[in-house]
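Thread: "does anyone have the structure for this chain?"

Original post by V.I.:
We have the sequence but no experimental structure in hand. Need at least a predicted one for the grant figures.
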Amino acid sequence: MILHPLSPTLQVSCDPMPAWDAVAVTQQQSASAWWLIAQPDHAALAGELAVHFAAPDFPAMDPDVVQAIALHDAGWAKYDGGSEAGGGIKGAPPQAQRDSSGRPLSFLQAPVNTFVEAWTASIHLAQEKAGAIGGLMVSGHFRRLAEYRQDSVEDTPEDAALIHRFLGNEVQQDEARFRRQSRSRPEVERLVDLLQFCDLLSLYLCCGSRASIHFPQKIASRPMILRRNGELCRLDPSPFREEVSLGVPARRDPASRTEPNTRVLPILIR
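Reply from O.Q.:
Generated one for you, tokens below.
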């Protein structure tokens, strides 16, 4: 689940901060209430952003690539629910997982066995709907996250073994996937970069941060920076030719007796 604090602490800095740091701050922030965004819905938003890429400095994306981006977190539906656009499920959403204080758990707090299960399911769904390139892109995304986890977190032996098995299995599966499609390895890696940019941009737009940010992915002629102008998010360089108005479904936690408990959070980006 992505947490969007209802009363966020404004992140103000003279210089743009790393995009991932801006997201992480909101996931750790104390609040009396949050909007909860299901990860399949965040992924669907990432796919909607990709659909609107139109600037010549950015690559055009085939429908299977866009679909892979839109389904890259579909495996979280078991835990988060979410709309069908991102691979979510019909019916009432699952109850939010909580820590010992009752605070809803962010996706950054998910146990290793939970996220490895969700990663694996996401890869299979992307491959089912978007073919071998979908499996390659989403597997490549989670392999990078798993490798980063190995290098940066001291997990228990059991959790470390889970991640090690996940990586070994995906390396083997990716070789078979690669033979079933026509793109070169550098082309596939670039598509994983695009997925990770859309993923990080969507996470930022969902989490409620107001900070100016910069992105690590090198998919344009120069590093990308996002600055806020009121409710408008401005990217430079921008993949969009004009302002794009989107939205992401959210539900309130805890529920309110006086205000709507579900809404579509508006997003305006250029």
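V.I.: this helps a lot. The chain has one domain: 2-269.
O.Q.: and The chain has a mean pLDDT of 94.
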